Amino acid sequence: MRPVRVIPLLTLVVALALTALAPGAAAATTRGAAGFYDPPSPLPKKPPGTIIRTVPIAAPAGAKAWKVLYHSRSVDGRDIAVSGVIVAPTGPAPKDGRTVLTWAHGTTGLADQCAPSKSPDAAKDLPYVDDLVKAGYVVAATDYEGLGTPGVHPYLVGQSEGRGVLDAARAAKNLAATDANDDVLVFGHSQGGQSALFAGELAASYAPELKVLGVAAAAPAADVEQILPLAGSIRGAAGYLVMGAEGLHAAYPDADPAAVLTPAALAKADVATTQCADAALQAFGGTTGTVLAHDPLSIPVIQQLLHENSAGNRPAGAPLLVVQGSADTTIPQALTDMWTAKACAIGDTVDYMVYPGATHSSVIAAARSDVLQWLADRAAGTPAPSTCS
Question: Do residues 136 and 115 share a domain?
Fold first, then answer.
């Protein structure tokens, strides 16, 4: 069915299934090249996006692809190594270079083996990759901080995720074989929707040399200040809360998981940091009501960090496309309705499209032609449409 373009309205409906983020496809545990994910120690400080190493990997038809390790920055400013994948067309590049599409993936987990780049088909598995290569884009796909590389992944920390997404675009430009330029489009799903939105918000201050033309977010986990506190009281979603608590602590040492989690949840919280999302969700799947000891919003330091890592508290930095499935029980439409209304209220240009019957996962396929056309229009400089009233 065709999508419905909607003018977002604030709603009194509180979704009954406010889980956080659906896990992505199971990540392979293969490390690939021996030691690839281990950065030099000490890591010499380099500009964000500087490539540390690359290795060629299997590519889609008409493309070449690499696994990459590149410099980025943690939320406290440390130089860190982040891994990912870059895909580029094999044909001749335009005289002014190729636009970069930087992709932000959904939840896979917090442990190293959950990095999407560890899949044997990491480049071929990227959404719309055949279409994107055919259209002439360079595709950059970050793993995010701490997935594959040292440290725990700062799950749902938009500041960290957004930097990883932008620095993947920088790395694509720094890889000479791609012929990439400074024009950037951003696309993400679920957790990656939050990441994509943060990339747009951060670009002007963090990566001012990049020209972000537009940001597309599918079923985005945009407002973690609302999502995360609710997850602990909903059956099947408690694992997201534990992953969120551990991810916040990875970026902000003062955000102690013991302040919000029960002793029983803390006793097995290492599942969230040592295994992937499916295992974490299973470990806490039957613990509804026994994971959350205190409302995170009642703890000032945690409430403030959740607010800071919710998208929409600052200008988007580029036109937005938000796509949402009406049958999504993971990020329900009601939640996305409210968030897009918030974005419209602060003056962002938002095109919001709802796909009847689409779920959290199937919205990617349902929105394919519309997302690709919207991206092409932004790359061509066509004025962006808006459904804001």
Answer: yes
